[in-house]
């Protein structure tokens, strides 16, 4: 689930309570009188709907027959020779898995290749081998080896998020106190059961400008 942004405007505050019932009770009351440093402020409590959110699942399948190979050395040999040498190198690598190679898809420009083995599971032992020796023309190079994966996007959904535990306060009057002090006074007021409040998980108050607050499911 992606994070859902909410625009918090000047002199507004967001309060998230531990108990959903507290938030819903305060919303039904509508207005609250809050003491802000001996100044009485009549604030309005509003429910709010978040912007559009996205839900999806990513299903990643690791191939047991294919591996990705990169950092293939640039050599002055034809491409089909390089494919043959890659096939021979991984065919001989029984100590690290490998075995008979079904195909080699090699791209000279990107210096990458996809090795497909004939036997299922032959690629499994290469998962933890990030660098692999490649012997050609009497020299040993190090190839970068990684698993070959298929990524599928599933259950893609758009939805409108509504936070049942969070309330929006409007009409907070400006004071000479700093933003943090005003936020503390608001928190103290709405934590008291005598004010129909309860335990607060998070609070954010903005005295000037705007800010973006992100919600997670």
From TrEMBL:
Nucleotide-binding keyword on record: no
Taxon lineage: Eukaryota, Metazoa, Chordata, Craniata, Vertebrata
Record key words, sorted: Cytoplasm, Immunity, Innate immunity, Nucleus, Secreted
The protein, known as: NMI protein
Family: Belongs to the NMI family.
Gene3D superfamilies the record matches: 3.30.70.330
Organism, as annotated: Calonectris borealis
Domain of life: Eukaryota
GO CC list: cytoplasm; extracellular space; nucleus
InterPro entries referenced in this protein's UniProt entry, alphabetically: Nmi/IFP35_dom (IPR009909), Nucleotide-bd_a/b_plait_sf (IPR012677)
UniProt domain NID: residue ranges: 13-103, 113-202
A family per Pfam: NID
GO BP annotations, alphabetical order: innate immune response; regulation of innate immune response
Cellular location(s): Cytoplasm; Nucleus; Secreted
């Amino acid at each position: 689930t992606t994070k859902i942004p909410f625009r918090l405007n000047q002199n507004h505050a967001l309060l998230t309570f531990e108990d959903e019932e507290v938030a819903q009770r305060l919303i039904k009351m509508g207005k609250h009188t809050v003491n802000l440093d001996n100044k009485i402020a009549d604030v309005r409590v509003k429910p709010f709907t978040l912007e559009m959110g996205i839900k999806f699942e990513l299903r990643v399948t690791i191939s047991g027959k294919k591996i990705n190979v990169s950092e293939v050395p640039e050599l002055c040999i034809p491409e089909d020779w390089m494919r043959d040498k890659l096939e021979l190198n991984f065919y001989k690598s029984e100590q690290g898995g490998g075995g008979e190679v079904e195909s080699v898809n090699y791209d000279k420009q990107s210096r990458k290749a996809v090795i497909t083995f004939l036997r299922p599971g032959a690629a499994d032992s290469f998962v933890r081998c990030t660098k692999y020796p490649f012997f050609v023309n009497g020299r040993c190079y190090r190839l970068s080896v990684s698993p070959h994966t298929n990524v599928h996007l599933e259950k893609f959904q758009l939805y409108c998020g509504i936070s049942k535990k969070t309330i929006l306060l409007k009409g907070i009057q400006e004071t000479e106190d700093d933003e943090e002090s005003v936020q503390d006074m608001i928190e103290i007021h709405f934590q008291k059961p005598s004010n129909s409040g309860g335990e607060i998980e998070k609070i954010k108050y903005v005295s000037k400008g705007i800010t973006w607050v992100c919600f997670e499911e």
